[in-house]
Amino acid sequence: MTSGRNDPCPCGSGRKYKHCCGSVVSTESLIALLISGQAPEAERLSAQLLRGRPEEGLLWKILGVAQMRQQKDALPALRRAAELLPQDTESRSNLVDELINYGNRLRARGKRGEALAALQEAVTRSPMRPDAHVSLGRVQLEARRILPAADSFRNAIIRQPDNVAAHLGLATAFRVQGSASEAMASCERALALAPHSPDVLVLLGELRADRGEFAEAQQLFERALELNPRFASAYCSIASHRRLTTDDSRWLRGVESLLSSQLALGEEVQLRYALGKYFDEVGDYDSAFDHYRQANELTQRFGGRYDANHFSALVSRIMDRSFDTLRDAFSESDVPVFIIGMPRSGTSLAEQILASHASVSGAGEVAYWDKAFDLPSPVGLAEEYLQRIHERAGKATRITDKMPANFLYAGLIHAAFPRAKFIHMQRHPLDTCLSIYFQEFFNVSPYANDLNHLAHYYGEYRRLMAHWRRVGLPLLEVPYEGLVADPELWTRRMLEFIGLPWDPRCLQFHDNARAVITASRWQVRQKINSRSVGRWRNYEKHLGPLLSLTEPGTLPG
């Protein structure tokens, strides 16, 4: 039944029909409001009309666009428009635009899971959109889904070969995988397309730094800041690759200015870590700890959670597990050398020293055994792993894998490679845990962002290492403090342990030009020093739950 103009409006507003849904408002006039920049009024009127005409797709479309332009949640309206107007390409495009925008906003707030869902939907709805693939790839990278991220960037490049962001993303994915030459090639393609892009210059600088070319890297970071004085990544990169001093007042002013403005969560986290490093290196330890604490608390907003009970149960399951199923699937190879321990315990230093030997190649951190641990069948594990390390490190008598967390899977690894050797790097627990707390791990190690969680994780690491000693793992214990105090003594012991003769080049490890992508890439290019030994004493009053790690009977002999 049609309502009279003076009747109550059937939408339930309480107003007369002529003053509500019966008002003469054409879709053309609503579109004119959008064109003239009056999105709030277009939103109000279209929402009002939809109460009486809920199946009119064009009104849903106008409502969604009006909400998009105000950066409101437009997804419900745009989804409805796409449903009611299935042949309207603009409605579909609007929905994909908003899914990408929404996903990027979620990413900026650290909500990676929700961002992944939105951006995956965007790619599914419009697989030919390169910007959808790039946005998805960026979140996948941050979530450490490296192989899917690389595929996303490749998909973008196939659809738009001159997409700078896609080439940069692919370069970053290659870098994380340890493929230095491929990373540089992708970055150089981006540079050719955008020679004045701060993003390109900073990544190129990072790749130079990976190879020990720190002067060239610093020039690239400074150039990026000249082009964009508010480019947060450039400030962070400058801090990562040299010691800061009180002479860096311009750098400090720039960082503090950025932090006084509205930033994406990831940018604020990076800048807080950088400020922590600055104040640590100028000796203002209370300020340093405050910034590191803020960085870690902000990182927790990304959603990673450490489940202490789950980790304890995992360690117990590992200790109880039998690896007899590998009796017929092991390898006689003695090529792999596994450098294990806690992060920040000296694993990068040990690898850099050994990789300077003529018969050793360093593979870096090879992500493999965490996935292999849960496979139903061990068949082919050893052969696949050997293929992977040879792809990364070439052919050599020994190839090192310095993934610290392999301490969790040492039993499986030993069963697969009974002739392989393990070098266990040990460092004072407070120096180790403090260094972890002070290092950005991109929320892939959620235990690292809370001192109580760090203390628990370290205790479980100790429990498992004691188990490996009891079962006779071929293990050389190397104290970090001993290695920096007498590098030749401990280098000789490591080489003897892995069956290699002395090579004096091992003591010139800082001149090795191999690419290093870990957080220690600057430190391992410096001559050996004991500057970081006992660093925890500067922060003793802040360490709280970590102090239990130094109680009698808890320190290594």
Helix content bin: 40-55%
Per DSSP E runs of 2 or more residues, the count of β-strands stands at: 5
Please outline the major beta sheet.
5 strands, parallel
Structural class of the helix and strand makeup?
mainly alpha
Q: Please give the count of helices.
A: 25
Overall pLDDT: 90
Distance between the termini: 91 Å
Strand content: under 5%
Low-confidence stretches: none
Oligomeric status: single chain
Write down the secondary-structure element order: HHHHHHHHHHHHHHHHHEHEHHEHEHHEHH
Report the radius of gyration as a whole number of Å. Answer: 28 Å
Major beta sheet, strand line-up: 2-3-1-4-5
* Shape verdict: elongated
Task: Give a verbal description of the structure.
The protein has 557 residues and is mainly alpha-helical. The chain has 25 helices and five strands. It has helices at 27-35, 39-50, 57-69, 75-84, 89-108, 112-125, 130-142, 146-159, 164-176, 180-193, 198-210, 214-227, 232-240, 249-259, 265-281, 285-299, 308-320, 347-354, 369-372, 381-393, 410-416, 429-437, 451-470, 480-485, 487-497; strands at residues 336-341, 360-362, 398-401, 421-426, 475-479. The chain has a five-stranded parallel sheet, sandwiched between helices. Helix 4 packs antiparallel against helix 5 (89-108), helix 5 (89-108) packs antiparallel against helix 6 (112-125) and helix 17 (308-320) packs parallel to helix 23 (451-470). The longest helix has 20 residues, at 89-108. The model has no long low-confidence stretch (mean pLDDT 90).
